[in-house]
Amino acid sequence: MSRLPAAPASKPAPEPSFLEFVLVIALMMGLVSLSIDNLLPAFDSIRSTFGVADPNRMQLVLTAYMAGFGIMQLVWGPVSDTIGRRKVLMIGLAIYTAGTVLAIFAPNYETLLLARAVQGMGGAAARVLSIAIIRDRYSGRDMARVMSLTLMIFIVVPVVAPAMGSAFLILGSWHYIFVSMLGLVIAVAIWFGLRMPETLHPEYRRKLSIAMVAFGIGRVVNNRASLTNMLAMGLAMGCLMTYVGSAQQIFETDIYKLGPWFPLAFGMIAICMGIASFTNSRLVKRLGMHKLSRAGMAGFTVMAAILLAEAYLFDGRPPLLVFGITMGIAHFLLSLTLPNFNALAMEPVGDVAGTASSFIGCVTTIMGAVIGGLIGEAYNGTIFPLACGYLGLSALCLVVMYGFGRSPALVASRAPAMVPGE
After folding, report:
1. CA–CA separation, 117 vs 70, rounded Å?
2. Which of 68, 85, 88, 205 lies at a CB distance of 3.0 to 4.6 Å from 120, suitable for a disulfide?
3. Are 235 and 390 in contact (CB under 8 A)?
4. Per residue in 30-66, pLDDT tens?
5. Taken in order 138, 143, 147, 149, is the CA torsion positive or negative?
6. pLDDT tens digits for 174-217?
7. Does the keyword Cell membrane apply (predicted)?
8. pLDDT of res. 147
9. At residue 8, what are phi and psi to the nearest 5 degrees?
């Protein structure tokens, strides 16, 4: 009896190219940014809809999102180290979708805040897994380059997001802003599901347990490079969230009264950040992550001091052009630090990338949200709180960076470490 020839084995789908990989990861991170920035022009409209008396309470729309976002980052990473990146991302995107639908139909302000928290919980999966996936595939300066390019594309979202939000308001309702978020999350799910393979190394897959999570967190805390750069990134995030929380009041309503021109001012500063990310991607392989992050933070501290001087000279309300140029330069320098801090924190912990990304993301997000919220609550119709916050946070960041000292030479982890009880 003759044997039939074996059917040829089906070839696995080709992995995405470098460009497509960067675009997919940038879109994942862009989901997080869009969920924050396109709501800024809608604060007054939402406030009117729900009868919110205190305009400073509108910052809770951001805080609620960041609270859910920060807490759930502790969950998604360890779970992804067990069942893989793809499944966890899809679960997170489903939760984000549920929160978005709830926001569209929210009957009151409290329900909207709950919906924002649910959105943040789901969006946290996109943030954690984007960093973990980058670490799965790259290390060292190559990882910093990918993070910089991803951030550069990701920065495009803040450039257009407020303008998109304003356009939806012109169409008639802030609810359309959440409809746009719904469209983006569906696009992310389809593109990632069709094109991105599982990136978790089989030898790094672990059983989910408290011991495993504690081990991964311990790897970060006990590694001086990871700990130092995590804290530095948290303080830098505090600066960024301080600006995001106050930008609408500074540009649109209170100080400069730009009204519909607010998205343009916000976008110009975001463009400076995008240019900085591209610059970082070109320089990081030549100069290294340490030099760029330290130079960027030192320069940002100088610009923060200049901003505070401007506040004193102009009674807290410097001319728009002066303020805009100072903020553009400051945020250019700030953007030289964030991708490098992230890469330096992740570099030594590649074998527990999911858990490490979760813990680092949770700590830095909560630091950023709390710091930004506190300084935002201190807003008094001038740039004094913003300038004082920038200077204090950047100075403290320098103390952390140089006080802890530079850790011994980093070696990318490629061999799986054993978790106690594994």
Report:
1. 10
2. 68
3. no
4. 888 788 778 878 888 898 899 888 777 787 888 899 8
5. negative
6. 999 999 899 999 999 999 988 888 888 777 777 777 888 888 88
7. yes
8. 78
9. -60, 140
Task: Scan for tokens 């953007």, then name that residue.
Answer: 335
Domain boundaries, the chain: 18-402
Integer Cα distance of 32 and 323 in angstroms: 27
C-alpha 72/C-alpha 77 separation (Å) is: 9
Question: Any idea which residue has 């604060």 for tokens?
Answer: 43
CA distances for 361 relative to 49, 197, 276, 418, angstroms: 33, 23, 22, 23
How buried is 312 (Cβ within 10 angstroms: 0-12 exposed, 13-18 middle, 19+ buried)? exposed
Task: Tell me how far CA of residue 388 lies from CA of 249, 253, 310, 324, in angstroms.
Answer: 17, 21, 11, 17
Would you tell me how many other CB atoms lie within 10 Å of the CB of residue 254? Answer: 16
pTM for this structure? 0.73
Comparing C-alpha atoms, which of 347, 350, 385, 51 is closest to residue 250?
Answer: 385
The fourth-level CATH superfamily of domain 18-402 is MFS general substrate transporter like domains (1.20.1250.20)
**What's the pLDDT score for residue 408?**
42
Tokens 């257009």 — which residue? 160
